[in-house]
Please model this.
Amino acid sequence: MGNLFGRKKQSRVTEQDKAVLQLKQQRDKLKQYQKRVAQQLEREREIARQLLRDGRKERAKLLLKKKRYQEQLLDKTENQITSLETMVQNIEFAQIEMKVVEGLQIGNECLKKMHQVMSLEEVERILEETQEAVEYQRQIDELLSGSFTQEDEDTILEELNAITQEQLDLPEVPSEPLPEKKPEKAPTKARPQQVDMVAAS
Model:
């Protein structure tokens, strides 16, 4: 029982899946960095405007140089994100190709086993036996059809017609209406006769 419940389940996560996950995590981190730097650049642009209004031109120029350097970093970040996404797509497509190849391999093995069960020679033998059986039946039909004379054929047709006529003959419907059946009268009960008893004197 301990081994049954303590058995570790085999993980279905492959090395390719792990690599894809890591690449996607790196891509997401770069996108977060890209968003954060873009917000910072917008703030620095506002600061440069304020410095120019205050007459601090050199300070504003220095800040814009820093901003330009960060913009170049953003361009590199965008290229890195594109490279990561391309790598993820290539790995995922390679996984699909591997599954297709595995499916083809399984199909080929199945076909090989089927071919071992029924070889080309076996198929040819079955077709020859089928053709022989058809030819044999045709010869039997020819013998049977040639063994009857014209008189026999006429007798068979007459018997067939007679059976057909028997199935078609139905009892005739009477032309005159059937007599109506009168209802029978219920028998009347006889009254008991009164017998006069004469007493003997």
